[in-house]
Amino acid sequence: MIEVSTSILSVKEEDSTKTFYNLETAKTDYFHIDVMDGKFVENNTSNMMYKYTEKIKQISNTPLDIHLMVNDINKYIEEYIPVYPSYITFHLEACKNKEEVFKYIEKIKQNGIKVGIAIKPETKIEDMYKFLPYIHLVLIMTVEPGKGGQKLIPYTLEKINDIKKYLMDNNLDTYIEADGGINLETSKDVINAGADILVAGSAIINSNNYEEIIKKIRRI
């Protein structure tokens, strides 16, 4: 079954408690937490996202899907371990070498959290192959990371398709998450390409009926 991870990047602080409650009752599968440090990407959301995370933990049992768009990966892994997220995903491009990648994989796993690795649109999927047997999730950015409300980049669908084929050919059960520009118009193509989890933000948050939109994105 296709899952939906709702990005809360565009949630207004004054509406946040009500929005998080409504997203839970609308049966979003995850809250997608976009942690940006102002260095790896231009925007800095780190303080706001942690504040939102603490609020969600107080009012909701919906799992957290942490997406680290940061240079200091270790710092933010340590920051989010105590909130027991379902996933912590970090960017391959923020790592100096494969040894560093494996260090973060192991650290996240040792704390009972599932590991994800994200790649930008221009990163070659072949760079991911050596890590796929050791992680639970590969996140394909379908827009450039760092800003909400962008349009999906069409060639990223091919990357999803190619990763899916590689996973099937090698009998790996790693999930594929797609993030960026996903809405009612694009979700069908993303699902057909092979994504298991769809990250959607503006399409859900800006709608009048969260539950209806989530169902439509899932193509139920």
Briefly say what this structure is.
With 220 residues, the chain is α/β, with parallel strands linked by helices. Helix content is 36%, strand content 20%. It has one domain (3-218): Aldolase class I (TIM Barrel, Alpha-Beta Barrel).
Proportion of strand residues: 15-25%
CATH architecture: Alpha-Beta Barrel
Order of helices and strands: EHEHEHEHEEHEHEHH
Q: Count the helices. How many?
A: 8
Going across the major beta sheet, what is the strand order? 1-2-3-4-5-6-7-8
Q: What is the C-level CATH assignment?
A: Alpha Beta
What is the straight-line distance between the termini?
Answer: 9 Å
CATH superfamily: Aldolase class I
Largest sheet: 8 strands, parallel, barrel
Low-confidence stretches: none
Briefly note the structural class of the backbone: alpha/beta
